[in-house]
Automatic annotation (TrEMBL):
Species per Swiss-Prot/TrEMBL record: Glycine soja
Main subcellular localisation: mitochondrion
Entry protein name: Mitochondrial arginine transporter BAC1 isoform B
Any one cellular-component term (Gene Ontology): mitochondrial inner membrane
Similarity comment text for this entry: Belongs to the mitochondrial carrier (TC 2.A.29) family.
Highest taxon of the lineage: Eukaryota
Record bears the keyword Repeat: yes
Topology relative to the membrane: Multi-pass membrane protein
Keyword set includes Nucleotide-binding: no
């Protein structure tokens, strides 16, 4: 589906809204994942049976604010990232379409637009990781590959699911149309997010291994790192990653599309 009209700054504002929605939905999942990894790996700490047990414990002892511990920096960082990411994707897509409306999604437009926006974002994510790993370009290759490849998959799934769902669902009123738009956004965004992580989770594990290795001279080729012992890391994080991917990306897309509509950027 192609944009009929576009206004530069508005696409970045819509992307900022998407970033805020991503943190609001996804941060509790990240909190639970960190608690599971930290507490279950260290002696003399609470042992959680699973994610639900961990969530219930946090809510009981700290309330809802416990799930959003440390969320403020994330809101700022992800909001800026979302603004750049969706703004660059939208404007690159419009440029490649030459301003001509196009019905069915075209790979020759989606793939370079998604890859380019993902590549740019990988350089934004590098300094963010500096706080954690004290090496601004360490793991940069893995991050670049993860964001470029992953976002090609994400936007391809999103655009095609969105197109075919809208093509087969007819709304009889404006109220029904709004509900359809939200439902399609949930399905297309959620499935796109799951597809993203199923595709690039090995690269994400490689990035983590490179960034957390205490040896400053450790190998930084992600494929070399993946050649040994990466399956365990993928399997360990698969459940938590996928369970977060659907709701977080569904909320992100719904917020993005609603923001575009409110800002007057129309889509077929």
């Amino acid at each position: 589906m192609a944009e009929i009209s576009s206004s530069g700054y508005k696409e970045y504002v819509a992307g900022l809204s998407a970033g805020v929605a991503a943190v609001a939905t996804g941060h509790p999942f990240d909190t639970v994942k960190v608690m599971l990894q930290k507490h279950n790996a260290e002696a003399h700490m609470i042992q959680y049976r699973n994610g639900l047990h961990c969530t219930a414990r946090i809510l009981k002892t700290e309330g809802i604010k416990g799930l959003y511990r440390g969320a403020t920096p994330s809101f700022v960082g992800i909001a800026v990232e979302g603004s750049l990411f969706f703004g660059i994707y939208s404007q690159t897509k419009v440029y490649l379409q030459g301003g001509v409306q196009s019905g069915e999604p075209r790979p020759q437009v989606i793939i370079p637009s998604a890859a380019f926006s993902g590549a740019i974002i990988s350089f934004v994510l590098g300094p963010t990781d500096l706080i954690k790993v004290k090496g601004i370009f360490r793991g940069g290759c893995a991050t670049l590959l993860r964001e470029s490849i992953g976002n090609v998959v994400f936007f391809s799934v999103y655009e095609y699911v969105r197109y075919h769902m809208h093509s087969n669902i007819k709304a009889n009123s404006s109220n029904h149309r709004n509900l359809v738009d939200i439902g399609v956004g949930i399905a297309s965004g959620g499935l796109g997010g799951v597809a993203f992580w199923l595709t690039v989770l090995p690269l994400d594990v490689a990035k983590t291994l490179i960034q957390t290795n205490p040896d400053k001279n450790c190998p930084r080729n992600p494929f070399g790192v993946l050649s040994s012992g990466w399956i365990e890391g993928v399997l360990y994080s698969l459940g938590a990653t996928v369970s977060r991917a659907f709701p977080a990306n569904a909320a992100t897309i719904v917020a993005w599309e609603l923001a575009l509509k409110m800002l007057g950027i129309k889509r077929d």
